[in-house]
């Protein structure tokens, strides 16, 4: 369920619990290569821009968000591939 997008010197990343905070983090890799300074609040326009680009990408590739119910637990592999638009 981790998500990320890199654009130029910027990196936007989402890491869900238990390893993350369940929110997007924005880093300037040129100024902060160790990713210590989350700039999402200081750079809301850049965070919004990259989030929109992630959503566009996710829609284009048929990204399916993980949920509490695992899809293969409730449908066959064939049904899953049809649901995901892979067949």
In words, what does this structure look like?
- By secondary structure, the chain is of the alpha+beta class.
- It is built from 3 helices and 3 strands.
- It has a 3-stranded antiparallel sheet with strand order 1-2-3, covered by helices on one side.
- Strand 1 (3-7) and strand 2 form a beta hairpin.
- The chain is elongated.
- The two termini are 23 Å apart.
- The mean pLDDT is 87.
Structure summary:
The chain is 33% helix and 17% strand.
SSE ordering:
EEEHHH
Number of discrete helical segments: 3
Q: How many strands?
A: 3
Radius of gyration: 16 Å
* Major β-sheet profile: 3 strands, antiparallel
Low-confidence runs of at least 5 consecutive residues: none
Could you list some keywords that capture this structure?
87 residues; alpha+beta; 3 helices; 33% helix; 17% strand; elongated
Spell out the blueprint of helices and strands.
Blueprint: E1 3-7, E2 10-14, E3 24-28, H1 44-61, H2 71-74, H3 77-83
Antiparallel strand pairs: 1-2, 2-3
């Amino acid at each position: 369920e981790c998500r990320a997008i890199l654009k130029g010197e910027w990196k936007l990343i989402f890491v869900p619990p238990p390893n993350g905070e369940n929110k997007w983090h924005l880093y300037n890799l040129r100024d902060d290569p160790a990713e210590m300074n989350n700039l999402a609040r200081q750079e809301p326009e850049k965070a919004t821009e990259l989030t929109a680009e992630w959503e566009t990408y996710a829609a284009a590739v048929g990204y399916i968000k993980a949920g509490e119910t695992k899809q293969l637990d409730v449908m066959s592999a064939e049904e899953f591939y049809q649901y995901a638009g892979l067949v």
